[in-house]
Each structure stands twice: as structure tokens, then as C-alpha cells.
Amino acid sequence: MQDNFPIRKVDHIRHYVGNARQSAFFYRSVFGFDQVAYHGLETGLKHEVDYLLVQNDVKLLFTAPVRPGHAIAEALAIHGDFVQDIAFEVDDVDWSYHEAVRRGAKSAREPFSLRNDDGEVRIASIHIYGDTIHTFINRDKFHGLFLPGFRERFEKGDPIGIQEIDHCVGNVELGQMNVWVKWYEDILGFKNLISFDDNDISTEFTSLMSKVMASGNGRVKFPINEPAPGKKKSQIDEYLEFFGGAGVQHVALRTDDIIETVQKLKSKGMEFLRVPKTYYEMLTDRVGEIDEDIEVLSELGILVDRDDEGYLLQIFTKPITDRPTLFYEIINRKGATSFGKGNFKALFESIEREQAVRGTL
Ligand code: FE2
Fold first, then answer.
1. Closest CA relative to residue 3, chosen from 135, 84, 114, 91
2. Dmax of the chain from CA atoms?
3. Rounded to the nearest whole angstrom, what is the distance from the C-alpha of residue 53 to the centroid of ligand 1?
4. Cα atoms found within 13 Å of the Cα of residue 331, Cβ hemisphere only
5. How far apart (Å, rounded) are the C-alpha atoms in residues 259 and 275?
6. What is the rounded average pLDDT of the residues 105-131?
7. Mean pLDDT of 207-220
8. For 122-148, what is the mean pLDDT?
9. 19-22: long-range contacts at Cβ-Cβ below 8 A with a sequence spacing of 24 or more?
10. Which residues pair with 88 in a beta bridge?
11. Alpha helices in 37-114 (DSSP H)
12. pLDDT number for residue 203
């Protein structure tokens, strides 16, 4: 398959937050990330601060405004803390930016360089749905820490086995899913891997539609969801209402040992969606033999699904902000390359129980 828009991988995910110091503390103490670097008032930034957290191949950047009237503060007033940038590492930032814009992308930042004694990093950005952007970044000529301007401010985390970003999911408004599917095809050369319609993903009350887009090299996977009409308000409608439009719904973090990862997260107080015990009574019939002890999976609430290539284990946190918006998935792939379609129904019924408690069903 020809790759007409080479992307190496997701470089980092940037969150806009109200208080980056506390977000850094949360991701370090709960998710076990190392806090690696800082850029702020003490290092020459005048209006915002950045904290970089790292665990294996996952880099998270937390940015907060430090003065009144900041543009970031205005975005935060609408959305609350949110994923603002899914940044890609590319071979050639200038080519990527100009080609994307030529194909119809809306510019967010024209190409520019950051430089210091450690070299040069080239950066440019384009808009996607809502207030979200994709940044193109190349640091082949840079041998310093993350980006020029950042200084080491190391605080060790207790790693929980997170290896890399598996996929990032966007929620868009009704009727917009195919618009963004076409956008990723036309502009970034992505392919539609899988589609789910409301027959696949529906419960008694709600339904949604989803298409999984993948980059040319297959390393970047972005499912895009839109609500489908149901008897009550779907989880996607709830997200759109509380977020104030389209945005990133969840980030899936891949681990090689989901039991250890989830045990550690639980010991730090992370809360997960629960499925009924009956889910596990039918599990072996549905997925066949697996390496893990079903008792342990049941205790932790870990879900299992199988496809033609193998099986996967997954679990979803409750929203990590006050608003029912961003949450995380922990996923452990044992050959399977799919996304857990067999779990959707059990999962959405679980989300609906949470919605009912919030009075938003
Ligand atoms: Fe997912």
C-alpha cells in the first residue's frame, strides 16, 4: 500500500490544563510517568508553563497559562482540561505542512524553528476538529531535551508498564464522522480500517457510529465517533455537550501486562468502568482459551475480545476530569489488531449506568 503522507509516529500529546503542576503530579503519582522537563517563567517563557512527562514511548506535555487573559485560558473556559495537540514526528516538516495545506488543511502555525546550542527543531501545525491540532515535528538535528527552551526537572515516577500510544479517539458532531474520515483520507493519506454502525454499537438506549482511520505505515490509529439517534442521550452527545463541541474522547495506552498495570493504577486510586459479573460467566464461550486467569480479570474488571489474529484485553477509566469528557483505555494486545467490538455492548451499558447517576442519560 502506497503511503502518500509519511508519518513516523505520534511524537507527543499535549494537554491544555488549568494547573500543569498538579496535572504533572497526577500523571506521575497515578500513571507512573517520569516528570522529565519543564519550560516556564524560570526558563524564559513569559505567559505559560510546560511540563513534559514520559513513560517508555509515551510523551505527554501539559501546558497551562500563568497570566490573565491568555488565549489558552479562553479555550480552557470552554472545554475544561483537554487534549489540544496530537503531534506527529515526520521526516520533513515543511513538506508535510505545505502539502497538507495544499490538500485543504487549515493552517494553525506556519513552519518555524526552535534553536539552541543543542541544535534545531522544526515545527508546524494544522487544525483538525474543534480546537484540536496536529503538529508536525522533526528533531533529527537536535540532541537536547525534548525542545529548545526545556530544562531538566526530573521527578521519578513508578512506571506501570505503559509502552506506547495505541490509538486516540475523537468525538465529532452528528453528520461529521464521514467529513473527518474523508479529511484524514484526502489530507493525511489515512485508510479506513474498520467501520462500526449503530447495529454493532447499540444498547437499549443509545447508539453511536465509529470508523477507524490508520496512517499509511499503520502506526497511527484514530477511531472517529459520532452519535446516532437513540432513545436517550448517547455518551457521545453527553461528551459534545459538556466539552463544547468535537474533541479527543480517549487515549488508549498499550501495556504488555494489563493485570500489573491495572493493579498499580487501582492501588493509586484510579477508577474504572465496571461490567457485571455475568460478563465473565460467558467469557470462555465467547473468546476461547486465554493465558490469563478469568478470576483475576473479573476482580479487576478487565475485558477480553478476540479477532482473526488473536485476542486483546482492555479496560476503560472513568473520566479523569470533572466533566464527563476525557478518559483513558489500557489495552494489552495478544495478536489482535482490532478494538474490542465484542465488548462494546457491555461497556456502553456500563457507561449508561454512570450517565444515569450523572442525570445525563
Ligand atoms: Fe479505544
1. 91
2. 61
3. 22
4. 24
5. 16
6. 98
7. 92
8. 98
9. 19/64, 20/49, 20/50, 20/51, 20/62, 20/63, 20/64, 21/49, 21/51, 21/64
10. 10, 136
11. 71-79, 93-102
12. 72
- Distance (Å) from CA 148 to ligand 1 centroid: 33
C-alpha cell at 331: 489495552
- Please state whether beta strands 247-255 and 327-334 pair in parallel, antiparallel, or not at all (unpaired): parallel
What are phi and psi for residue 59, nearest 5 degrees? -115, 125
Residues 302-355: tens digit of each pLDDT:
999 999 999 999 999 999 999 999 999 999 999 999 888 888 877 778 888 888
How close is the Cα of 150 to the center of ligand 1, in Å? 32
Would you say domain 162-358 falls under CATH 3.90.190.20? no
Q: Give me the residues paired with residue 9 across strands.
A: 89
Q: How far is the CA of 43 from the centre of ligand 1 (A)?
A: 37
| pLDDT range class, residue 231, cuts 50, 70, 90 | low
Where do the structural domains in the chain lie, given as residue ranges? 9-155, 162-358
Contact in structure between 161 and 260 (CB atoms under 8 Å):
yes
Cα 66 to Cα 165: distance, rounded to the nearest angstrom: 29
pLDDT-derived band at 232, boundaries 50, 70, 90? confident
Task: List the grid coordinates of 28.
Answer: 506521575
pLDDT (tens digit, 9 = 90+) per residue, 4-46? Answer: 999 999 999 999 999 999 999 999 999 999 999 999 999 999 9
* One fold for 9-155 and 162-358: yes
**Distance (Å) from CA 346 to ligand 1 centroid:** 14
Query: Cα(49)–Cα(23) distance, rounded to whole angstroms?
Result: 12
Distance (Å, whole) CA 337 – CA 1: 18
Fold of 9-155: 2,3-Dihydroxybiphenyl 1,2-Dioxygenase; domain 1 (3.10.180)
